[in-house]
Fold this protein.
Amino acid sequence: MKLNPTGQYLTEMQYTDNPQKQALLRRPIGRWGRLWQEWMKTEHPTEIAVLVMTARWQIIPREIDRQAENRWTELDEQYRRENPRPTAFLEMQEWEKNRLLTLEHIIMEEIVFRIHS
């Protein structure tokens, strides 16, 4: 039981019995998960109620964060292999900008802009 600010005792319900999902819920929602939630609110607002009722609204963004982080690492290694980093300062700035934009675009298309269930 937990005491709320108004002095009432409330039972604490677990969101899930799955230990992996419980560990996931201890992590904050990161950048990619927040972007997914914003996209869902804009593009698919009617789906949110179903995700909340099935206890997926808080799990999915954290899963998306994990997938996006792993994919970012893969894509970054691939980009660096295929596009060697220049040594001149202005070229390096352009390379960094292109790398970030390319990786972000791929992650948004592959992971964030998807309905996850």
The first helix runs from residue 19 to 25. The helical segments are 19-25, 31-43, 45-53, 60-82, 89-112.
